[in-house]
From TrEMBL:
Gene3D superfamilies: HAD superfamily/HAD-like. This is ACID PHOSPHATASE-LIKE PROTEIN. Residues 1-21 form the signal peptide. Keywords: Signal. It comes from Salix purpurea. PANTHER family: ACID PHOSPHATASE-LIKE PROTEIN (PTHR31284). It holds the Pfam family Acid_phosphat_B.
Amino acid sequence: MAKSQLLLSLFLFISISETISQSIIQLSRDHDDVYCSSWRFSEETNDVGYWDHVPSRCVSYVQDYMTGDGYRSDSEAVASYALDFAKTVEIAGDGKDAWVFDVDETLLSNLPYYALHGFG
């Protein structure tokens, strides 16, 4: 009985180790669009950490996104949400009200900069 329990335990350990070693969520090494979409999401949520260039395998992905419908649609959606919020703000009218904007990608597009520098 002890030997069969040992074998069963060993089998379970190997099975669990194999399952754990293969992440449930994997960034595909073969499909750049999937990888780059995940990289973009992580970058936008500030989870990528410090980075100073777009990963080389994602340059064409970034170019396609920024010059295609995705960037325009995302920008329009964010602008719409911001306008909806702005309409709910009560202005005191005492001359001390102010709007503060993060200019970068809020009031000013970086698209010309990215295009000039090859989207990388």
